[in-house]
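Hi there, hope your week has been kind to you so far. Would you mind checking whether the tokens look sensible for this chain? I owe you a coffee for this, so here goes:
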Amino acid sequence: DIVKAIARLSYFYKHESCVQCTPCREGTGWMWRVMERLVRGEAHKREIDMLLDVTKQVEGHTICALGDAAAWPIQGLVRHYRPEIERRIDEFSRNSHRAEPVMVAAE
């Protein structure tokens, strides 16, 4: 399952972050939490674009290359597997009628 694999990578990068710079400290946590929501089937389609936005805010804005390394797998997932991610969300929402809160970014 490609979504689970990328979620596991996201957890690795969150865990390995030294938390020295804000984009990596906050971004890796956000990326991992949204990926976990995708794995559990609690995510909404609009969270895919939010996830991509977070990766763009992390990429190129960190002290070391860990932020870039954390962002790239998710960017690749969305770029190459977006229809599969959306289908997964649709299937989970059909099978479950829970009203889960959507993760939203502060503006």
